[in-house]
Amino acid sequence: MASRPLSPIRRSPTAPLGRAASRLQQATAPEAASERLQKALASAGVGSRREMEEWIAEGRVQVNGETATIGSKVGPRDVVKVSGRRVYLRFEDKRTRILIYHKSDGEIVTRDDPKGRATVFDALPKLRGAKWIAIGRLDYNTDGLMIFTTSGELANNLMHPRFEVEREYAVRVLGELSEDMMAQLLAGVELDDGPAQLQSCFVAGGEGVNRWYRVIIKEGRKREVRRLFEHFGLTVSRLTRVRFGPIALPPQLRRGQKVELEDDLVARVLEWAGMAPSPRRQMRGVPDKHTRKPRMR
User: Inter-axis angle of helices 49-57 and 152-159, to 10 degrees?
Assistant: First the structure.
């Protein structure tokens, strides 16, 4: 009896490809859309877009072995190195995370301090495949709201001077502003590094020789609020940031405490900053009924 011919073996469409076939598929796959180098680096969590532009200008970034320039574009197949170390870029939409932290005075806003002092990053949760980017800074002796995100684009949109995002502070002053001083601060005064002004200023209480003020500025120059008061010979004895853009410091969040924004609040921040929320946003479960949400403006 003649043997029946063997049926040919057919590969399942879901079976993994061999090495050669996999390489062929990668080589013939359509090229993913490229994007500007500074944006790709920021999206990978290396730093803010503005910081990435400075690094590119300083010649610290290479693409495929050549020094990159501002405006260079990269795709998934490009090899990018920063200061000699390879950086693996992400070209898919990833969930943007935002965390707010109540900074204490005596903490510094840096990742590594040669003097071994406490830094705000010591208190943040560890991340895999991303890192926290600080949105703005606070001086060593200033406490209050700090915002961190995994999105370099969001950090850039909130920090870059051209967006003029409001920062609100509670200021305790040894002395008192006269009406004329307040008018000058609102109109603008000349500091060592150029003109500066307050967008808003009003009395918020105080007793004895101390007075509290609530002020709003639209830029983040070093010690700017303190220097504005020092311009009139007044000493700031306490400075607390209570709002940055659309996010206000929750009253129940004590110094040293942190809270991560839920997805609906993240979406509102992204919309406020002119960014579309990621379509792949993941939901992180139902919040505890006793947990208050951070305030949004």
Answer: 90
Q: Give pLDDT tens digits for 175-217.
A: 999 999 999 999 999 999 899 999 999 999 888 789 999 999 9
Please list, in sequence order, all residues whose beta carbon lies within 8 angstroms of the beta carbon of residue 163, skipping any fewer than 6 positions away.
Answer: 157
Q: Let me know if 129 is exposed, middle or buried by CB neighbors in 10 A (0-12, 13-18, 19+).
A: exposed
pLDDT, one tens digit per residue, over 124-138 is: 998 877 889 999 899
CATH number of the domain within which 113 lies: 3.30.2350.10
DSSP 8-class letter at 195: E
Q: What is the pTM assigned to this prediction? A: 0.65
Mean pLDDT, range 273-297, rounded to an integer: 51
Q: What are the tokens at 184?
A: 């000058």
Residue 295: HSE in the Cβ half-sphere, 13 Å Cα cutoff: 12
What's the domain count of the chain? Answer: 2
In the prediction, which pLDDT does 281 show?
A: 43
Give the whole-angstrom CA distance, residue 250 versus residue 101: 10
**Residue of 78, 93, 113, 139 with catalytic role:** 139
How high is the pLDDT of residue 118? 85
Q: Quick check: is 263 catalytic?
A: no
Domain boundary among 210, 229, 248: 248
Same domain, 119 and 195: yes
Are 146 and 83 contained in the same domain? no
